[in-house]
Amino acid sequence: MIPIRTLALLTLAGCGNGWAPAAADLAMPDLAPAYPAGPFGNQNGQTLGDVTMSGYRLSPEQTDSTKATWESNIRLADFHNNPACKCLYIALGGRWCGACRQEQGSMIDWIKKDPNFCVLGVLQDGLKEHVDATHDDVDKWTQEFKQNFTVVAGSKATWAFTDSYRNQSNEIGMPFSLVVKPSTMQVAGHDIGTSPLLYNSAVAECKK
User: Fold this and answer.
1) Residue 197 to residue 89: CA distance in whole angstroms
2) How many angstroms separate the Cα of 145 from the Cα of each of 56, 66, 72, 98, 206?
3) Residue 156: strand, helix, or coil
4) For residue range 152-207, what is the model confidence (pLDDT) as tens digits?
5) Would you call 176 helix, strand, or coil by DSSP?
6) Before 182, cis peptide (omega within 30)?
7) Which 3 state secondary structure label does DSSP give 125?
8) How far apart are CA 59 and CA 46, in angstroms?
9) Strand-pair partners of 190
């Protein structure tokens, strides 16, 4: 009996009829880099744990969520495995939050001027504070602002991004953002509130 491994090699070598596989047939697919190991946390220098989220993978090429597919397998690992992503800005907000609404235009502009700057928009709350946004909330949010970046619905997992930054009443100002280095998925900084200057500070933090 021919060992399975030997049989596999013979199969790759052909069947003796002059056929040989093209180089592309033998090429192994590039393996995506493994997500960095823990311990995980959301403080500066700590690795942000991989999280699976649901929402729309919007982009500069597709800003209309009515023509996009709602996906339930969006992960932080997607940004780690994207070589074009040099700095990741994770912004948590709510439909009730005026400053969060104001921030959408700024983040859209950041991506327009810097394609290597990545944004993950997390609509944590709907129209009421501390009430997780629904699919319908995300639909209305994305249809209003036409974001050119991924937007997902908030969950307990994304709310954990704010751990230790909340006050004694378990509240936090919004928008709340984390700056993450995609190469290591380590937190480089955080901010509460919005400002046109946040892009510059985020890029500087990612380069440290």
Assistant:
1) 13
2) 13, 12, 21, 13, 27
3) helix
4) 999 999 999 999 899 888 889 999 999 999 999 999 999 999 988 899 999 999 99
5) strand
6) no
7) strand
8) 28
9) 178
pLDDT for residue 144:
98
Angle in degrees, 0-180, between the axes of helices 98-113 and 198-207, rounded to the nearest 10: 60
Contact 198, 106 (CB under 8 A): yes
Q: How many CB atoms lie within 10 A of CB 197?
A: 10
**Count of residues in the chain:** 208
pLDDT band of 18, cuts 50, 70, 90: very low
- Tell me the pLDDT tens digit for each residue of 90-118: 999 999 999 999 999 999 999 999 999 99
CA–CA–CA angle 17, 20, 21 (5° rounding): 140
* Residues facing residue 75 across a β-bridge: 52
Annotation: CATH topology of 41-207: Glutaredoxin (3.40.30)
Q: Residue 139: which of 69, 41, 51, 48 has the closest Cα? A: 69
Structure tokens at 159: 């709310």
Query: Taken in order 185, 166, 107, 55, is the CA torsion positive or negative?
Result: positive
Structure token pair of residue 15: 């069947």
Alpha helices in 149-190 (DSSP H): 156-159
Closest listed residue to residue 66, CA positions, set 76, 56, 81: 56
| Phi, psi angle pair for 198, to nearest 5° | -65, -30
Extents of the domains making up the chain:
41-207
This prediction's pTM: 0.83
